[in-house]
Amino acid sequence: MERTKKLSLWEQLKIACLKPKEYVKLLEVGKGKVICFFLIITFVLTFLGYGVDMLGFNASVGGLKNFFLNRLPAFELRDGQLQVETPLDFYIGTVHIVADTSKDTVSKKDLKKNDVQEIFFVKKEVAVKNNVGQTVLYKVPFSLEKGIVLNNAGLVKMIPLFHMMALIVFFAEWVAVSVVYLVFCGFISIFLFVNMKIQDPSIRLRKIFKLSIYARVIFELIETIGKTAGYSFFSSLIWLLISYLGSYQLLGMAFQKPKEKKES
After folding, report:
1. What pTM was computed for the model?
2. pLDDT tens column, 1-18
3. Does the CA dihedral 122-128-131-133 come out positive or negative?
């Protein structure tokens, strides 16, 4: 048992992804190590998702300075109005960015239903859409800051600020990934607890929840890599069901093994 408690993070990961029949060993891992494992896994998931998207975009445009001066169309924001030389339409990861100053305002028909996040610049305002759970649309009119003058050269001067913002967003994304991860773990843990309680009244929800953190790993990794690679399947309801049922099955195996031994 002492040896089991000293399982390294790498050994925990191998058991979580490749050795579900040994999940029972993970019950003896200390609380501190479980928390450490969870934080590292969610950090890796955040990096594989948001981090890879940002690094990939930066590499594809030759750095922000080159992007602002040579890839981004010439633009100027002055007196509360935006003028862009040519329309702009591109993606940074899952964020859709559009600029079309032939329009004065943004309407819902201008936005794409399937995009999770969208930023739309028009002549008199910028609209930000988030489509997580329910669609939320924010509009910020440029008339609020008529004294601001901004162009391509001005963006270059703001590069350190963009780097700081990207870092802040990364940590915010890490928190969001962690929360969603825990909510999913809680959901499958409660469902398994209700089913197992009938067969084994001594079972404890905290033990199930502890193992659910490991049972989610392989599916979270597959989903994150798939989404980053651009496969829409990993955002579908079918994948959600596969992910849920797979995690539930892995989690259940940890509590089936002792029962089988007892019966034999």
Report:
1. 0.81
2. 444 457 888 999 999 998
3. negative
